[in-house]
Amino acid sequence: MSSSLVSGPRRVVVRQHRRALWTAGGLVVLAVAVATGLRWWSHAVPHRIFNGQMSPLGILSLVMDGASTFLLLVPILIGAFVAGPMIARELESGTYKVAWTQSVAPSRWLTSKLMVAAVLAAAASAVLIAAFRFGWTPIRGSYNLSWPDRGVYEATGPVLAAYSLLGVAVAAVVGQLVRRTVPAMAVTGVVTGTVLLVLGSLRWDVWPSLTLSGPGTDKLTGMQALPRDAFLLESGYVTAHGRLPYDACWRATGGLDDCPASLGITGWYAEYHPASHFWPVQLAETGIVLALAALAAYAAFRVLRRHHA
After folding, report:
1. CB within 8 A of 214, min separation 6: which ones?
2. pLDDT at site 16
3. What residue segments make up the domains of the chain, in order of their start?
4. What distance in Å separates the CA atoms of residue 40 and residue 32, rounded to the nearest whole number?
5. Counting Cβ atoms within 10 Å, is residue 243 exposed (0-12), middle (13-18) or buried (19+)?
6. What is the CA radius of gyration of the chain?
7. Phi/psi class of residue 133: alpha, beta or left (left: φ > 0; alpha: ψ in -120 to 50)?
8. What's the rounded Cα separation, in Å, for the pair 60 and 80?
9. Do 230 and 274 form a contact (C-beta atoms < 8 A)?
10. What does the pLDDT average to over 290-303?
11. Is a pLDDT exceeding 60 seen at residue 280?
Protein backbone atom coordinates (compact mmCIF):
# COMPACT_ATOMS: atom_id res chain seq x y z
CA MET A 1 0.00 0.00 0.00
CA SER A 2 1.12 3.55 -0.64
CA SER A 3 2.20 5.64 2.31
CA SER A 4 -0.60 8.17 1.62
CA LEU A 5 -3.23 5.47 1.99
CA VAL A 6 -2.01 4.18 5.35
CA SER A 7 -0.88 7.40 7.00
CA GLY A 8 -2.50 8.82 10.13
CA PRO A 9 -6.01 7.52 10.92
CA ARG A 10 -5.95 5.30 7.84
CA ARG A 11 -2.98 3.44 9.29
CA VAL A 12 -5.00 2.84 12.45
CA VAL A 13 -7.91 1.44 10.39
CA VAL A 14 -5.60 -0.94 8.56
CA ARG A 15 -3.96 -2.12 11.79
CA GLN A 16 -7.30 -2.61 13.51
CA HIS A 17 -8.53 -4.93 10.80
CA ARG A 18 -5.26 -6.41 9.56
CA ARG A 19 -6.31 -10.01 10.19
CA ALA A 20 -9.48 -9.66 8.16
CA LEU A 21 -7.57 -7.83 5.42
CA TRP A 22 -4.89 -10.50 5.29
CA THR A 23 -7.58 -13.18 5.09
CA ALA A 24 -9.38 -11.36 2.29
CA GLY A 25 -6.09 -10.85 0.44
CA GLY A 26 -5.30 -14.54 0.77
CA LEU A 27 -8.68 -15.49 -0.68
CA VAL A 28 -8.13 -13.17 -3.63
CA VAL A 29 -4.71 -14.70 -4.28
CA LEU A 30 -6.26 -18.18 -4.02
CA ALA A 31 -8.94 -17.22 -6.55
CA VAL A 32 -6.28 -16.04 -9.00
CA ALA A 33 -4.27 -19.23 -8.51
CA VAL A 34 -7.30 -21.49 -9.02
CA ALA A 35 -8.46 -19.67 -12.17
CA THR A 36 -4.94 -19.67 -13.63
CA GLY A 37 -4.24 -23.29 -12.72
CA LEU A 38 -7.54 -24.63 -14.06
CA ARG A 39 -7.22 -22.75 -17.32
CA TRP A 40 -3.67 -24.02 -17.83
CA TRP A 41 -4.76 -27.56 -16.99
CA SER A 42 -7.75 -27.45 -19.34
CA HIS A 43 -5.47 -26.22 -22.13
CA ALA A 44 -2.79 -28.84 -21.46
CA VAL A 45 -5.10 -31.89 -21.42
CA PRO A 46 -8.44 -30.69 -22.83
CA HIS A 47 -9.77 -34.13 -23.86
CA ARG A 48 -8.73 -36.23 -20.90
CA ILE A 49 -11.66 -37.78 -18.98
CA PHE A 50 -11.55 -38.33 -15.21
CA ASN A 51 -13.66 -41.00 -13.49
CA GLY A 52 -15.33 -41.62 -16.83
CA GLN A 53 -17.28 -38.38 -16.55
CA MET A 54 -15.47 -35.05 -16.24
CA SER A 55 -12.95 -33.45 -18.56
CA PRO A 56 -10.70 -30.58 -17.45
CA LEU A 57 -12.95 -28.20 -19.38
CA GLY A 58 -15.96 -29.64 -17.59
CA ILE A 59 -14.31 -29.14 -14.22
CA LEU A 60 -13.35 -25.60 -15.21
CA SER A 61 -16.97 -24.91 -16.17
CA LEU A 62 -18.23 -26.29 -12.87
CA VAL A 63 -15.79 -24.19 -10.83
CA MET A 64 -16.46 -21.01 -12.79
CA ASP A 65 -20.21 -21.51 -12.46
CA GLY A 66 -19.80 -21.65 -8.68
CA ALA A 67 -17.41 -18.69 -8.76
CA SER A 68 -19.94 -16.57 -10.64
CA THR A 69 -22.48 -17.16 -7.87
CA PHE A 70 -19.96 -16.38 -5.14
CA LEU A 71 -18.86 -13.14 -6.79
CA LEU A 72 -22.45 -11.92 -6.64
CA LEU A 73 -22.05 -12.05 -2.86
CA VAL A 74 -18.81 -10.04 -2.76
CA PRO A 75 -20.48 -6.57 -2.54
CA ILE A 76 -22.78 -7.90 0.18
CA LEU A 77 -19.88 -9.35 2.19
CA ILE A 78 -17.84 -6.16 1.82
CA GLY A 79 -20.76 -4.01 2.92
CA ALA A 80 -21.50 -6.26 5.89
CA PHE A 81 -17.90 -6.09 7.10
CA VAL A 82 -17.68 -2.32 6.79
CA ALA A 83 -21.04 -1.79 8.50
CA GLY A 84 -20.33 -4.15 11.39
CA PRO A 85 -16.68 -4.53 12.46
CA MET A 86 -15.47 -1.24 10.95
CA ILE A 87 -18.20 1.22 11.97
CA ALA A 88 -21.02 -0.11 14.16
CA ARG A 89 -18.71 -1.97 16.54
CA GLU A 90 -16.82 1.19 17.45
CA LEU A 91 -20.04 3.11 17.95
CA GLU A 92 -21.53 0.27 19.98
CA SER A 93 -18.50 -0.09 22.27
CA GLY A 94 -17.70 3.62 22.47
CA THR A 95 -14.10 3.21 21.29
CA TYR A 96 -14.66 5.87 18.64
CA LYS A 97 -14.36 8.44 21.43
CA VAL A 98 -10.68 7.59 21.82
CA ALA A 99 -9.96 8.64 18.25
CA TRP A 100 -12.11 11.75 18.51
CA THR A 101 -10.30 12.93 21.65
CA GLN A 102 -6.93 12.63 19.88
CA SER A 103 -7.43 15.51 17.45
CA VAL A 104 -9.28 13.31 14.93
CA ALA A 105 -12.50 15.02 13.85
CA PRO A 106 -15.56 12.81 13.31
CA SER A 107 -15.55 13.54 9.59
CA ARG A 108 -11.90 12.53 9.31
CA TRP A 109 -12.61 9.35 11.29
CA LEU A 110 -15.35 8.34 8.85
CA THR A 111 -13.39 9.48 5.79
CA SER A 112 -10.42 7.32 6.81
CA LYS A 113 -12.59 4.23 7.19
CA LEU A 114 -14.39 4.77 3.91
CA MET A 115 -11.19 5.54 2.00
CA VAL A 116 -9.44 2.37 3.16
CA ALA A 117 -12.54 0.25 2.55
CA ALA A 118 -13.25 1.77 -0.88
CA VAL A 119 -9.69 1.47 -2.18
CA LEU A 120 -9.33 -2.14 -1.03
CA ALA A 121 -12.82 -3.09 -2.25
CA ALA A 122 -12.17 -1.63 -5.70
CA ALA A 123 -8.73 -3.25 -5.94
CA ALA A 124 -9.99 -6.66 -4.83
CA SER A 125 -12.94 -6.46 -7.22
CA ALA A 126 -10.66 -5.57 -10.13
CA VAL A 127 -8.39 -8.54 -9.44
CA LEU A 128 -11.35 -10.91 -9.09
CA ILE A 129 -12.85 -9.63 -12.35
CA ALA A 130 -9.57 -10.22 -14.17
CA ALA A 131 -9.19 -13.69 -12.65
CA PHE A 132 -12.74 -14.67 -13.54
CA ARG A 133 -12.46 -13.43 -17.11
CA PHE A 134 -9.21 -15.35 -17.52
CA GLY A 135 -10.77 -18.60 -16.34
CA TRP A 136 -14.10 -18.03 -18.09
CA THR A 137 -12.87 -17.19 -21.59
CA PRO A 138 -12.27 -20.80 -22.79
CA ILE A 139 -15.74 -21.93 -21.70
CA ARG A 140 -17.82 -18.81 -22.39
CA GLY A 141 -21.19 -19.70 -23.81
CA SER A 142 -21.43 -22.93 -21.79
CA TYR A 143 -24.54 -23.66 -19.77
CA ASN A 144 -25.04 -20.88 -17.18
CA LEU A 145 -21.84 -19.21 -18.40
CA SER A 146 -23.03 -16.97 -21.24
CA TRP A 147 -22.22 -13.28 -21.09
CA PRO A 148 -25.72 -12.11 -19.94
CA ASP A 149 -26.16 -14.77 -17.23
CA ARG A 150 -26.50 -13.56 -13.64
CA GLY A 151 -23.16 -13.73 -11.91
CA VAL A 152 -21.19 -13.97 -15.15
CA TYR A 153 -22.39 -10.54 -16.27
CA GLU A 154 -21.39 -8.96 -12.94
CA ALA A 155 -18.09 -10.83 -12.71
CA THR A 156 -16.82 -9.83 -16.14
CA GLY A 157 -17.13 -6.05 -16.00
CA PRO A 158 -16.68 -2.94 -13.86
CA VAL A 159 -20.20 -3.20 -12.45
CA LEU A 160 -18.90 -5.62 -9.77
CA ALA A 161 -16.50 -2.96 -8.49
CA ALA A 162 -19.30 -0.38 -8.55
CA TYR A 163 -21.55 -2.62 -6.45
CA SER A 164 -18.67 -3.18 -4.03
CA LEU A 165 -18.31 0.58 -3.59
CA LEU A 166 -22.06 0.84 -3.12
CA GLY A 167 -21.79 -1.75 -0.35
CA VAL A 168 -19.16 0.39 1.38
CA ALA A 169 -21.29 3.55 1.12
CA VAL A 170 -24.48 1.83 2.30
CA ALA A 171 -22.52 0.37 5.21
CA ALA A 172 -21.44 3.86 6.29
CA VAL A 173 -25.08 4.96 6.60
CA VAL A 174 -26.44 1.78 8.16
CA GLY A 175 -23.55 1.38 10.59
CA GLN A 176 -24.18 4.82 12.05
CA LEU A 177 -27.95 4.46 12.21
CA VAL A 178 -28.08 0.94 13.67
CA ARG A 179 -24.94 1.21 15.85
CA ARG A 180 -24.94 -2.51 16.66
CA THR A 181 -22.54 -4.87 14.93
CA VAL A 182 -24.64 -7.86 13.87
CA PRO A 183 -27.87 -5.99 13.04
CA ALA A 184 -25.87 -3.46 11.02
CA MET A 185 -24.27 -6.28 9.03
CA ALA A 186 -27.66 -7.87 8.37
CA VAL A 187 -29.37 -4.65 7.30
CA THR A 188 -26.49 -3.68 5.01
CA GLY A 189 -26.54 -7.10 3.41
CA VAL A 190 -30.28 -6.87 2.77
CA VAL A 191 -30.09 -3.35 1.33
CA THR A 192 -27.11 -4.10 -0.93
CA GLY A 193 -28.61 -7.40 -2.05
CA THR A 194 -31.92 -5.74 -2.83
CA VAL A 195 -30.23 -3.14 -5.02
CA LEU A 196 -28.35 -5.94 -6.82
CA LEU A 197 -31.60 -7.79 -7.41
CA VAL A 198 -33.64 -4.78 -8.55
CA LEU A 199 -31.05 -3.29 -10.89
CA GLY A 200 -30.26 -6.76 -12.21
CA SER A 201 -33.88 -7.17 -13.27
CA LEU A 202 -33.93 -3.74 -14.93
CA ARG A 203 -30.51 -3.60 -16.57
CA TRP A 204 -31.63 -4.74 -19.99
CA ASP A 205 -34.02 -1.80 -20.19
CA VAL A 206 -31.31 0.85 -19.87
CA TRP A 207 -30.09 0.26 -23.44
CA PRO A 208 -32.34 -0.10 -26.51
CA SER A 209 -32.75 -3.68 -27.69
CA LEU A 210 -32.82 -4.78 -31.33
CA THR A 211 -35.80 -6.37 -33.06
CA LEU A 212 -35.76 -9.15 -35.64
CA SER A 213 -39.02 -9.77 -37.47
CA GLY A 214 -40.47 -11.47 -40.49
CA PRO A 215 -43.72 -12.38 -42.26
CA GLY A 216 -45.76 -15.53 -41.70
CA THR A 217 -45.89 -17.83 -38.70
CA ASP A 218 -42.63 -19.75 -39.09
CA LYS A 219 -41.03 -18.03 -36.11
CA LEU A 220 -38.56 -20.78 -35.22
CA THR A 221 -36.99 -20.84 -38.68
CA GLY A 222 -36.84 -17.06 -38.86
CA MET A 223 -35.17 -16.75 -35.47
CA GLN A 224 -32.23 -18.78 -36.75
CA ALA A 225 -31.01 -15.45 -38.11
CA LEU A 226 -30.38 -14.25 -34.54
CA PRO A 227 -26.68 -13.80 -33.74
CA ARG A 228 -25.28 -16.92 -32.11
CA ASP A 229 -24.47 -15.18 -28.82
CA ALA A 230 -27.57 -12.97 -28.71
CA PHE A 231 -29.55 -12.59 -25.49
CA LEU A 232 -33.22 -13.14 -26.35
CA LEU A 233 -35.53 -10.89 -24.34
CA GLU A 234 -38.90 -11.63 -25.89
CA SER A 235 -40.44 -13.27 -28.93
CA GLY A 236 -43.92 -13.74 -30.29
CA TYR A 237 -46.29 -13.04 -33.14
CA VAL A 238 -47.62 -9.87 -34.78
CA THR A 239 -51.27 -9.27 -35.62
CA ALA A 240 -53.19 -6.30 -36.97
CA HIS A 241 -54.12 -5.40 -33.40
CA GLY A 242 -50.74 -5.83 -31.69
CA ARG A 243 -48.53 -8.61 -30.44
CA LEU A 244 -49.21 -12.12 -29.16
CA PRO A 245 -46.89 -14.05 -26.79
CA TYR A 246 -44.47 -16.71 -28.02
CA ASP A 247 -46.77 -19.60 -27.00
CA ALA A 248 -50.00 -18.26 -28.51
CA CYS A 249 -50.08 -20.84 -31.30
CA TRP A 250 -49.09 -23.69 -29.02
CA ARG A 251 -51.92 -22.91 -26.62
CA ALA A 252 -54.40 -22.89 -29.50
CA THR A 253 -53.26 -25.98 -31.43
CA GLY A 254 -50.51 -27.72 -29.49
CA GLY A 255 -48.01 -26.97 -32.28
CA LEU A 256 -45.22 -24.43 -31.94
CA ASP A 257 -45.79 -22.73 -35.30
CA ASP A 258 -49.16 -24.28 -36.14
CA CYS A 259 -51.19 -21.08 -35.93
CA PRO A 260 -54.96 -21.00 -36.62
CA ALA A 261 -56.27 -18.33 -38.96
CA SER A 262 -58.54 -17.03 -36.20
CA LEU A 263 -55.53 -15.48 -34.46
CA GLY A 264 -54.96 -13.16 -37.43
CA ILE A 265 -51.18 -13.53 -37.31
CA THR A 266 -49.31 -11.59 -39.98
CA GLY A 267 -45.73 -12.09 -38.79
CA TRP A 268 -43.38 -12.77 -35.90
CA TYR A 269 -40.82 -10.80 -33.92
CA ALA A 270 -37.92 -11.30 -31.54
CA GLU A 271 -36.34 -8.64 -29.30
CA TYR A 272 -32.74 -9.26 -28.28
CA HIS A 273 -29.43 -7.80 -27.17
CA PRO A 274 -26.37 -8.78 -29.22
CA ALA A 275 -23.10 -9.40 -27.42
CA SER A 276 -21.91 -5.98 -28.57
CA HIS A 277 -24.37 -4.44 -26.08
CA PHE A 278 -22.41 -5.88 -23.15
CA TRP A 279 -20.19 -2.84 -22.65
CA PRO A 280 -22.86 -0.14 -23.15
CA VAL A 281 -25.11 -1.87 -20.61
CA GLN A 282 -22.18 -2.41 -18.24
CA LEU A 283 -21.12 1.22 -18.37
CA ALA A 284 -24.67 2.52 -18.01
CA GLU A 285 -25.33 0.30 -14.99
CA THR A 286 -21.94 1.14 -13.49
CA GLY A 287 -22.77 4.84 -13.73
CA ILE A 288 -26.14 4.31 -12.04
CA VAL A 289 -24.60 2.28 -9.20
CA LEU A 290 -21.79 4.78 -8.66
CA ALA A 291 -24.36 7.58 -8.49
CA LEU A 292 -26.25 5.64 -5.82
CA ALA A 293 -22.98 5.07 -3.97
CA ALA A 294 -22.21 8.79 -4.04
CA LEU A 295 -25.68 9.57 -2.67
CA ALA A 296 -25.22 7.01 0.10
CA ALA A 297 -21.80 8.44 1.00
CA TYR A 298 -23.27 11.94 1.13
CA ALA A 299 -26.05 10.66 3.37
CA ALA A 300 -23.45 9.02 5.64
CA PHE A 301 -21.72 12.34 6.31
CA ARG A 302 -25.05 14.09 6.83
CA VAL A 303 -25.94 11.49 9.45
CA LEU A 304 -22.55 11.96 11.08
CA ARG A 305 -22.98 15.74 11.29
CA ARG A 306 -26.52 15.43 12.60
CA HIS A 307 -25.56 13.01 15.39
CA HIS A 308 -22.15 14.46 16.27
CA ALA A 309 -22.27 18.12 15.37
Report:
1. 222, 267, 268
2. 81
3. 9-205+278-307, 210-275
4. 12
5. middle
6. 25
7. alpha
8. 30
9. yes
10. 96
11. yes
Which are the contacts of 131, defined by CB distance < 8 A and separation ≥ 6?
A: 31, 32, 35, 36
User: How far from the centroid of its chain's Cα atoms is residue 184's Cα?
Assistant: 21
In the chain, helix, strand, coil percent, each to 5? Answer: 70, 10, 20
Stretch 126-140: mean pLDDT: 95
Q: Which residues pair with 235 in a beta bridge?
A: 270
Calculate mean pLDDT across residues 101-110. Answer: 77
CA–CA dist 16, 91 (Å, integer): 15
Sheet holding 231-239, edge to edge: 210-215, 265-273, 231-239, 242-245
* Residue type at position 111: T
Give residue 254's region: left, alpha or beta (phi > 0; psi -120 to 50): left
**Which of 6-10, 65-69, 175-179 is least confident?**
6-10
Of residues 111, 112, 130, the one with CA closest to residue 122: 130
CA–CA gap between residue 169 and residue 118 (Å, rounded): 8
Give Dmax over CA atoms of the chain in angstroms: 83
In whole angstroms, give the CA distance from residue 17 to residue 4.
Answer: 18
